[in-house]
Write a sequence for this structure.
């Protein structure tokens, strides 16, 4: 009786957890898509620079986010099906998907503390325009100023006004000297804070999902053993 009551409670908790995990998976997929195709991020990524490390991070983050979201959604679906059907096989598969997602989430969460998000492409484009070496760079710089609503940067040379008046939007020209580098860093920092907050919540639900699926597996296993006891087979003599 106690085992059945505990199993019923676990099944209810697992269904709620599976729903939350599915919503988190959809949120991660949406966030990955917005990050990959968003104007601010594509501007930084598409700058043709051999040393543009952000471009590599940009593509890896997108594919990692999509794979992670698919794993979480699969874990939620398998756990829900296992709860309804009381299947040990589906429960084990749900646990495996939760564990796989957890193994991907931990390195992603630790990445923030082992890598910096310094973006140096703006410096490169700005100096190219200041030296009047490329009209294409001037177009890129203008697009950055329009997207981030900033104008120029602080320079020790003091000869930046000409560049800023050529590339800043009309409404931002009076703010010449405003540090775009700081604006870009602040934008990326806010975005990464949101991303890692979402990852932290997902880690918590993933661990809870692993605990519930393992408990459900043992409950189904011992319950089936108890059902076998007390059954007798009558054989004719």
């Amino acid at each position: 009786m106690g085992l059945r009551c505990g199993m019923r409670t676990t099944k209810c908790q697992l269904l709620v957890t599976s729903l939350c995990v599915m919503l988190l998976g959809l949120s991660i997929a949406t966030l990955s898509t917005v990050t990959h195709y968003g104007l601010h991020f594509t501007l930084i990524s598409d700058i043709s620079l051999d040393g543009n490390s952000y471009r590599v991070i940009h593509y890896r983050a997108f594919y990692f986010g999509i794979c992670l979201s698919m794993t979480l959604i699969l874990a939620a679906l398998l756990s829900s099906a296992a709860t309804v059907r009381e299947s040990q096989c589906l429960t084990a598969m749900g646990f495996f998907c939760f564990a796989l997602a957890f193994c991907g989430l931990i390195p992603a969460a630790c990445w923030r503390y082992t890598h910096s998000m310094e973006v140096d492409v703006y410096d490169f484009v700005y100096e190219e325009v200041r030296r009047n070496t490329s009209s294409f760079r001037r177009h890129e710089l203008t697009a950055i100023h329009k997207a981030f609503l900033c104008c120029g940067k602080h320079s020790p040379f003091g000869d930046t006004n000409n560049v800023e008046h050529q590339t800043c939007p009309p409404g931002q020209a009076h703010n010449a000297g405003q540090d775009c580098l700081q604006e870009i860093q602040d934008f990326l920092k806010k975005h990464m804070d949101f991303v890692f907050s979402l990852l932290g919540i997902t880690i918590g639900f993933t661990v809870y999902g692993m605990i519930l699926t393992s408990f459900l597996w043992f409950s189904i296993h011992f319950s089936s053993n108890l059902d076998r006891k007390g059954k007798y087979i009558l054989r004719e003599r």
Notes: The CA atoms of residues 137 and 235 lie 90 Å apart. The chain has one domain: 7-122+181-231. The helical segments are 2-37, 39-45, 53-85, 88-114, 121-130, 135-148, 161-167, 180-228.
